[in-house]
Amino acid sequence: MSNQVRGVHVTRHGAAPELVRTTAPVAGPGTAVVATTAAPITPLDVLCASGTSYFGEPALPYVPGVQGVGTVVSSPEHAPGTRVWFPTSAGMAPGDGSLAERVLVADADLVPLAADVPDTVVAALGLSAVAAWMSLTWRGRLVAGETVLVLGAGGVVGQVAVQAARLLGAGSVHAVCRSDRAARTASAAGADSVTRLRDDDADELAARIRRSVGGSVDLVIDPLCGIPGTAAALCLAPHGRLVNLGSSAGATATYSSATLRGGSQSILGYTNNALTPDLRRGALDALLDHAAAGDLSVEHDVVPLDGLPAAWQSQADGTNERRYVVSFA
Ligand SMILES: NC(=O)c1ccc[n+]([C@@H]2O[C@H](COP(=O)([O-])OP(=O)(O)OC[C@H]3O[C@@H](n4cnc5c(N)ncnc54)[C@H](OP(=O)(O)O)[C@@H]3O)[C@@H](O)[C@H]2O)c1
C-alpha cells in the first residue's frame, strides 16, 4: 500500500502553498495519526506562513493548518475511526499541520466529537469560535444582562461573539463593522446595532458607538486593536472590560490612564495558546452543543483540496467573503 498522501506545502514565505504528495506520518509515543476530513484556512495560518508572525519564520517546506477535523487512524488512547477535532502548532513551532490527508497530532490534544454537527461546520467554527467563547467567559467574565460590543463582528470571531453573548445572557449585543458584507453578517448574527467604521478618529468613532449603543458598554470583544480598539475603550462603563485578541486594524491602541483608573476598567489580552487541553475541549463542546441545537453558525465556503491555493491567496489578499473550509471528502 502507498504511504503517499495528498496535501499542500508552504515552500516560500508569503506565497500560497503548493499541492504536493507527501509521506504519511507514523505515530510515535503520545501521538496519533488522524485522517483529515475538513480544515479551515484562517488568518493565523496565512500570518504564520508569511514569516512575519511573532513566532518567527517557519522552516520550509511545511504543511500549514493549525486545526482540523478527521477520524483517528492510530492512537494510544482513541479507537480507530473515532471522529475528532484537533489543533496543531504548524507555522508556530516545527512540525506539519492539518492541510494534508494524514496528520500527526499529540494524542492529548484530540477532542472526540459527540455533537451531530457536520465536519465542515466544526472546522469553520474551530479555534476562532473557541477564542470568541473564552474571551466572553473565561477572560471577559460576562455577567447576564451586561451590554457587549463586538468589533470586527462580520468575521468568524465576531459572528460567534455576537451569537454567544446572546446565548450567555447579555442584555444587548452591538457590532462595529467595516464593510457592507460584514455589517449584513453581524445583523444576521443578531447584533442589536451596527456602527460602521469610517475614516473618523477615535473620539468621533467613540461618540458614534455610544449613540448606537445608547450609552456605555460593559464588555468589548476586540479582534481589531488600532483606532476601533482605542474608540471602544473610551466607551467602557465603570468596571468595564476590553478583551483584545487580534490586531487586524492596527498594532497599537491608546488608553487614558485617568479613565481606566477612574472607572476601575480592565484591558485584557487573550490567546488560544494559553488554554489547557481541558479548557479548549470544554469550550468546543459547549459551542458544538449550541451548533447542534441550531443556535450557532458561521458563514463559510467549502472548497476541495485542489482549490486550496486559490482560496489561500484570496484569504491572504483579503478578497474572501467568508471563512474557507477545505474538504478532503
Ligand atoms: N488571540 C487568539 O487566540 C485568536 C484566535 C482567533 C482569531 N484571532 C484573531 O482575531 C482576528 C479575527 O479573526 P477571525 O477568525 O474573525 O478573522 P476573519 O473571519 O477573517 O474576520 C476578520 C474581520 O476583521 C475585519 N477586518 C479586517 N481588517 C480590518 C481592518 N483593517 N479594519 C477593520 N476591520 C477589519 C474584517 O472586516 P471586513 O469583513 O469588513 O473586511 C472581518 O470582519 C484575526 O486577527 C485573528 O488572527 C485571535
Number of domains: 2
Using the coordinates above, name the CATH class of the largest domain. Alpha Beta
| Overall morphology | globular
Compute the number of strand runs. Answer: 15
Average pLDDT works out at 97
Taking the sheet with the most strands, its summary is: 7 strands, mixed
Outline the structure in words.
The protein has helices spanning 43-50, 119-139, 156-167, 180-189, 202-213, 226-234, 257-262, 277-292, 308-317, and strands spanning 4-9, 18-23, 31-41, 67-74, 83-87, 102-106, 111-112, 147-151, 172-177, 193-196, 217-222, 236-244, 266-269, 300-304, 323-327. Helix 2 packs across helix 8 (277-292) and helix 5 (202-213) crosses helix 6. It starts with a strand and ends with a strand. Strand 9, helix 4 (180-189) and strand 10 form a beta-alpha-beta unit. It contains nine helices and 15 strands. It folds into two domains: 4-113 and 299-327, Alpha-Beta Complex (Quinone Oxidoreductase, Chain A, domain 1), CATH 3.90.180; 126-272, 3-Layer(aba) Sandwich (Rossmann fold). 32% of the residues lie in helices and 26% in strands. Strands 3, 4, 5, 6, 7, 14 and 15 form a seven-stranded mixed sheet that branches. Strands 10-9-8-11-12-13 form a six-stranded parallel sheet, with helices on both faces. Strands 1-2 form a two-stranded antiparallel ribbon. The protein has 329 residues and is of the alpha/beta class. The chain is globular. It binds NADP nicotinamide-adenine-dinucleotide phosphate. Residues 42-44, 127-128, 131, 152, 154-158, 177-179, 181-182, 197, 223-224, 245-246, 248-249, 270-272, 323 line the site of NADP nicotinamide-adenine-dinucleotide phosphate. NADP nicotinamide-adenine-dinucleotide phosphate (NAP) binds at residues 42-44, 127-128, 131, 152, 154-158, 177-179, 181-182, 197, 223-224, 245-246, 248-249, 270-272, 323.
